[in-house]
Specification:
Elements lengths: L13 E4 L2 E4 H5 L3 E7 L5 H12 L1 H6 L2 E7 L3 H14 L12 E3 L4 H5 L3 E6 L5 E3 L1 E6 L5 E7 L7 H16 L2 E2 L10 E3 L5 H7 L5 E2 L10 E3 L3
Parallel strand pairs: 3-4, 4-5
Antiparallel strand pairs: 1-2, 1-5, 3-8, 6-7, 8-9, 10-11, 11-13, 12-13
Helix pairs in contact: 2-4
Bound molecules: benzoic acid.
């Protein structure tokens, strides 16, 4: 299958997970979704990542985002590993992860979604999953994808930041500049004419003077 592109409808796969069998689009319902993959259960970096995702789960819920993890092991392994992750987070024994983990022991989804990392292999020489992140909108279309190798853990605060940007730019005709944080000023899109921008952003448009004389660096307070 060709790689998934931004704007493509995300595959409506069926999978076994730690909360039973799901069909992906039904699981998402009207929410945004983040599907994030892991190389293997019972591995150190993955444990810290899932622990961090669990700690931040209320922040994702606040943004109407459902999290779902994936790793190429069985549901039974995932359930055992989940206990270690909760212990890593210093949670009481018996507490559950606030999101499901997909079991992809045959690597079917990993192959379909282009998530295998050929540089990292298990003891049988089989490739492991890379650290993929897919953000899916309520329209079930792919809004963002990032792919890290197994040896580099992700930053889940950055993931919240990009979701804030994706949700803002889905609502308003603006773009967020480098290192943007919610509440910072935003950029007027290049395809918005000067008169239209003045109407669209009544709190003002600031145009930065540049040597080229071109008026493309236009800021406005976050609408
Ligand atoms: C880890 O999660 O620690 C890991 C897994 C596979 C390869 C490298 C690191």
């Amino acid at each position: 299958m060709p790689a998934l592109l931004l704007g493509d409808v995300f595959p409506d796969f069926q999978a076994d997970t730690t909360v039973g069998q799901i069909r992906f689009h039904d699981f998402l319902g009207d929410c945004w979704g983040v599907l994030f993959s892991h190389p293997k259960d019972y591995t150190p970096v993955c444990t810290t990542e899932l622990g961090r995702a669990a700690k931040l789960s209320a922040e994702f819920t606040k943004r109407n985002v459902k999290l779902i993890a994936l790793s190429i092991d069985s549901v039974e392994d995932h359930l055992g590993w989940s206990k270690d992750i909760c212990a890593y987070n210093n949670e009481a024994p018996g507490s559950c992860l606030p999101f499901p983990i997909i079991a992809d022991a045959k690597r079917e989804l990993a192959m379909q979604l282009g998530m295998l990392d050929p540089d990292e292999r298990d003891s049988q020489g089989m490739p492991l999953t890379a650290r993929a992140v897919f953000v899916i909108g309520p329209d079930k279309r792919l809004k963002l994808s990032i792919l890290y190798p197994a040896t580099t853990g992700r930053n889940f605060d950055e993931l919240l930041r990009v979701i804030d940007s994706l949700q803002l730019t889905a609502r308003q005709r603006v773009a967020t500049p480098v290192d943007w944080q919610p509440g910072d000023r935003v950029m007027v899109l290049p395809n918005v004419a000067e008169e239209e921008a003045a109407e669209m952003f009544p709190s003002g448009v600031f145009v930065k003077d540049l040597p080229s004389g071109k008026k493309y660096l236009r800021y406005t307070p976050q609408p």
